[in-house]
Amino acid sequence: MAASKLSPTDAWGSTLPGPPSRNNFGSADLSPSGLFAFSSGSSVSVVDSRSLQLVSTIPLPPPPGALSPFVTSVRWIPLPLPRDLLSTEPSASHLLLAVADRHGRVALVDFHLRSVVVWLNPSSDPKLGVQDLCWVQARQDSHVLAAISGSSFLSLYTASGGIFWKYDAGTEILSCLRRDPYDSRHFCVLGLKGLLLSVKVLGDTENDVVIHEMQIKTDFSELLRLERDGNSSSSSPASAAFPLYFARFAFSPHWKNILFVTFPRELLVFDLQYETPLSTTPLPRGCAKFLDVLPDPNNELLYCAHVDGRLSIWRQKEGEQVHVMCTMEEFMPSIGLSIPSPSALAVLLSQSDSTMQTITKLYPDETSSVDFDNPFDFYDESIVVSKTTFFSLSDDGKIWKWVLSAEGVEDALKNASDLDISIVGADVALPGAIQKKDFSNLEDGLVVTPTNKSRGQTSSSSFGRSDLSFKISLTGQLQLLSSTVSTLAVPSPSLTASLARGGNIPAAAVPVVALGTQSGTIDIVDVSTNTVAASTSVHTGVVRGLRWLGNSRLVSFSYSQVNDKSRGYINKLVVTCLRSGLNKPFRDLQKPERTPIRALRTSSSGRYLLILFRDAPVEVWAMTKHPVMLRSLALPFTVVEWTLPAVPRPGQGGPSKQSLSASEGVAAPADSTSVGSDGSTEETVESFAFALVNGALGVFEVQGRRIRDYRPKWPSTSFVPSDGLVTAMAYRLPHVVMGDRSGNIRWWDVTTGQSSAFNSHRDGIRRIKFSPVVAGDRSRGRVAVLFNDNTFSVFDLDSPDPLAQSLLQPQIPGTLVLELDWLPLRTDKNDPLVLCIAGADSTFRLVEVTVNEKKAGFVPQSKSVKERFRPMPMYSPILLPVPHALALRMILQLGVKPSWFNTSSTTLEKRPHLIHGMASSSKDLRSYMIQLPPLGDPVVPEMLLKILEPYRKEGCFICLLYKLTKRSPQKLPSPASGVDEATMLSKISSTGVWAPEARKCDGSLRLMAFEREELRKRANERLPWHENLEGEDCIQKQVHELISVGNLEAAVSLLLSSAPDSPYFYPNALRAIALASAVSKSLLDLALKVVAANMVRTDNSLTGTHLLCAVGRHQEACSQLQDSGRWTDAATLAATHLEGSDYARVLQRWADHVLHAEHNVWRALILYVAAGSLQEALAALREVQQPDTVAMFVLACQEIHSEIVTELSSLEDESESEYASGEDTVPPDLPGLEPGKEEVTAVCEYFQQYQRKLVHLCMDYEPYTD
After folding, report:
1. Which of 30, 81, 141, 788 has the least CB density, counted as fewest CB within 10 Å?
2. Per-residue pLDDT tens for 33-88?
């Protein structure tokens, strides 16, 4: 038979993941482009975080000969869209996802191809599961992956596979990894007992790794007790051995070398440079243990997740690295949740939203901003200071999207007594001390009270506000499978009705599947969208059986055993109406029964129900509006199955009256039954086949309230199996197919008596399902067989040798199949056969089986849905083919009018995001460009707009890009000063856009501080943090900070405070004398007196730098600091003492280091501009192959230069201005970027080549259709 190969793209696109659990270690990651990846079971799922739609689920292939282990860590590679089109073909390297599992395996998964690219350690130790992953950039063109495996092993892998460095922490239990946002080569590792590792990766060899060990003092007595009491292996990962004991940390986005660390009951601020905690705050009374810590990217706020699903908000005290809790918010609301409540597994903070807020602050809009991600967020009179988006993941299969808004006016947080916290929405009870207003353990006596005070105008970007209030809103939720699947049911394609009391309206086949779960909920899956359309909590225990009554009602059962002496069972039967959402129990008994229910069987019309008990009679029920039991059948049944609708013959428009005997009445059309005055159909007949414990077979007919024996044509040979036990059966007129516990499959024609049998050479048979058949099908005997070993096969019983032409190979390696059934949506013989499969890994999958007519076999293929429907487009451009994503990027760079984004198919007149002036396809698309730039090919924008037209028509861009297209820069103020090249260059170098009041470094922009005032300000802010630190090492570093900011008096005082017996006294005395001589003679005299009285010997590496400062050799001092790796200190010293080209040289050398050592081209670019080295900035962008960015950089510099020239010239008097307006006046060119300069010409040619290559690639790719 033909070889089978699953196409990953479609197969994984038709997989619905089960809920994540603590076995997945809460692993989740949110990419900067908005793709939310999380693990559940042995799969990795990706969700579009903006529209909260499931993009795909990727099962990780299992190890050889083993089941698929739990996925325990996921991490997106930190790469942008590749733009090196001129040297390589387009690749999806930006969609690489590092995935690790409980067996210690680490794989790189290409999400674009949805396949494993490489296994980094295929020969891993199954005992050493992976705890956490972290990407580190070792060189400009390569990344390495750091991984914690087992309890104490830290490993580094190259992206091509292979380990090159390993570290053993001994008795420490390593918990988490995080990369330094300031230096992509540097990452830290934290252990549960307080070990902190600082690792810098300079290459991909063992000698290129520099590691430094530190210890954080913390109370881990509870951990020691858990180690003594626990049964887990000593090599187990931290989250496996101690699932509720978390140690997490995060780098500060505002301050270099600052870490925020949480242990279960304390929050610390740790200084990597000083190697000591700056503050330690215990967990307030009544609060659950810490789960994770998330610093706000824009403001000096900390968010701490707790194991009970709450989020605490902490503010920083003025001038200190000390944080105080403000309030607590619920991330797991108790309304509408099951009992017990689900657990929060992970909380993530969206960084992309903070970037949008930073852009908004740099280019403020006078109008009120509306959050168009939230359609209900219209104009609000409150002043929103900031908005932070969170995503939380719970073990009931839900992904929650929250928006936390901070509202208020200026000067807040400056005085804690003025801070009012308002919890808007549900009344959330604050835990412990906060709820009881016992603030003895909170600093400054913080009082948390509601407030309704008036609000003022929006203030600047710095986070100083009073009357600050927090409001949290649930803006979205994605429901996946709520629990492990226990059973599934597919609607029967009956021609009879599904109304409560019957009827004769044909019931349409609906593309839904019902899944019963172990938590007692029933999930309704819409297979056309691969989503959970509804989830209903029906039972308190496991749903053990589930069947459809027509296509709108379900019947399910569960049971529980009582604890009294009778040891009986309480059986619960419920009818669920999907239209109304009501659950109606029936067959309620007052006392427990002797045996539990074993199974349910419903007729294809939904009128009749068979209830099978364990060692008890079978009950027959009529499922009317009020179910009625017809009779009890006291026979020893082993298996019972209702008949499926009769198969239409080729050329037969529909079943005729003559062909529908009483035994085939299930398929009777509307005119073959007599309808009573009350609408009931008493003449409708349905039948079911059965097998008894002795192997005997039979068929019963149910007609109205009558049940009679149907006498079929018995087979000519004996049909009793050797062991006498039939375990599975399927019945579709005229065939009855049976399977037994020895793996034998028998079938029998009830009209002719013909029969046959064969042995499957497999384990016992649990389930047999006939495939859907339509007119024109070659075969009517295709069946899917589920074996007791949780594997399945597909056989064609009409073929001469069913076993030889079966589908026997494992279709889902590593996954056990719990239940299966066919999806009854075929309408044509060319439509594929689709199997619905519930896996033991909690996934729900659709597997397509295509009949190979030439080779008379079955080929398992991916399921491809004819029409993929989504309630709204997924507007993540990162999901587009790479050339199309780059085309959209270029359109935005060149400038497109907002009206182009509008489309009639996705907008309504009254919606707030409607942009007037809808684009027309027949119109000249070039008119939608704001202004064709002087760079590049002028034809390219129109061609790119045509390529993007299919996406625009689907509305894929409007929601995502509305905020950007709506923003317009404010008019810049004009200073009253003359115009010269030095002034203009200084303005551009220091600000980029000449708006001094807008250059307040806030949020993530603090990573790029380079201005004099900003450097000095931040250095002075750091000084108070270290005043109370003790130890000579700390004193030496404090002296260095004081000298950097020019505070020599304080430095001398600190140096002279050294004890006479200190080994640091001699170098301290030498520096104190030299520094005192630079201040005043009186201070020098005092220093000499102190030094003369005490003599000791020692040395320090910073002594030479300080002596150079004392004699005014600041340029050399800066060079020494840079040589020793103290780049920020060197810049601070230069900002204090150097001017002009001397200061620029320090910044340029810093920029070279950031570019070539830290691999941060964007920070290097800003430093080059600050130093006035525009040509070096061009070279840097060309070096990293960013043709569009370098062209836009040249264009931006020229536009800013022209704007500054115009505004400065307009202020000059016409008679005195050198650049007065006139016909002959030509603005001077920007030095270094003159239009005719060789470097600028090369940039323009480079950009044009890139544009042409992009257009050709876009035309080669088909538009992405989901």
Report:
1. 141
2. 889 999 998 899 999 888 888 988 888 888 887 788 899 999 999 988 888 888 77
Instruction: Determine which helix (DSSP H) or strand (DSSP E) holds 1069, and give its type and residue range.
Output: helix 1065-1077
Cβ-Cβ contacts under 8 Å for 263 (sequence gap 6 or more): 192, 194, 218, 219, 220, 247, 290
Unique residue bearing structure tokens 């002959």: 1224
Using an 8 Å Cβ cutoff, are 721 and 744 in contact?
yes
Closest of 1003, 869, 857, 947 to residue 1262, by C-alpha: 947
Pairing relationship of beta strands 597-602 and 583-586 according to DSSP bridges: unpaired
Name which of 108, 99, 62, 119 is nearest 810 in CA terms: 62
Q: 585, 556 in Cβ contact below 8 A? A: no
- Compute the distance between CA of residue 213 and CA of residue 210 in angstroms, rounded to an integer: 10
How many CA atoms lie less than 13 Å away from 985 in the CB half-sphere? 17
Q: What φ, ψ does residue 1009 adopt, rounded to 5°? A: -65, 130
Q: Which of 857, 557, 502, 852 is nearest to 703 (CA)?
A: 502
Q: Taken in order 871, 877, 882, 886, is the CA torsion positive or negative? A: positive
Cβ neighbours of residue 479 closer than 8 Å, sequence gap 6 or more: 397, 398, 531, 532, 535
Q: Which CA distances in Å does 1230 have to 214, 259, 568, 894, 996?
A: 50, 42, 91, 21, 20
The CB density around residue 506, as the number of other CB atoms within 10 Å, is 14
Match 């900002």 to its residue by tokens.
1135
Q: Where are the strands (E) in 180-257, listed by range?
A: 186-191, 195-201, 209-215, 248-251
Helix H or strand E segment including 946? helix 940-947
CB 1172 within 8 A of CB 1182: no
Contacts of 4 (CB under 8 A, 6+ apart): 807, 809, 811, 859, 860, 861
- What token pair was written down for 3? 């070889």
How far apart are the C-alpha atoms of 61 and 40, rounded to whole Å?
14
Q: How far apart are CA 668 and CA 689, in angstroms?
A: 19
3-state secondary structure 382-397: CCEEEEEEEEEEECCC
**Token couple for 85:** 């089109």
Say if residues 408 and 469 touch (Cβ distance below 8 Å).
Answer: yes
d(Cα 745, Cα 740) in Å, to the nearest integer? Answer: 7
Residue 251 contacts residue 261 (beta carbons within 8 Å): no
Dmax (CA) for the chain in angstroms is 124
433 residue type, one letter = A
Picking from 435, 431, 370, the residue whose alpha carbon sits closest to that of residue 405 is 370
Torsion-angle region of residue 1117: left (phi > 0), alpha (psi -120 to 50) or beta? alpha
Give tens-digit pLDDT for 1198-1218. Answer: 888 888 888 877 776 554 544
Mapped onto helix, strand or coil, the DSSP state of residue 22 is helix
**What's the sign of the alpha-carbon dihedral 158, 163, 166, 172?**
positive
Does residue 19 have a cis peptide bond before it, meaning omega lies within 30 degrees of 0?
A: no
Q: How many CA atoms lie within 13 A of 1074 on its CB side?
A: 18
From 141-150, 458-467, 844-853, 1014-1023, the region with the lowest mean pLDDT: 458-467
> pTM higher than 0.85 for the full model?
no
Q: Phi and psi dihedrals of 201, rounded to 5?
A: -105, 115
- Candidates 458, 527, 1074, 550; CA nearest to 837 is 527
The least confident of 97-111, 528-542, 683-697 is 683-697
The token duo for 1255 is 């257009």
Q: CB neighbours of 641 closer than 8 A, spacing ≥ 6?
A: 601, 688, 689, 690, 729, 730, 731
Q: Which of 1013, 1011, 977, 973 is nearest to 994 (CA)?
A: 973
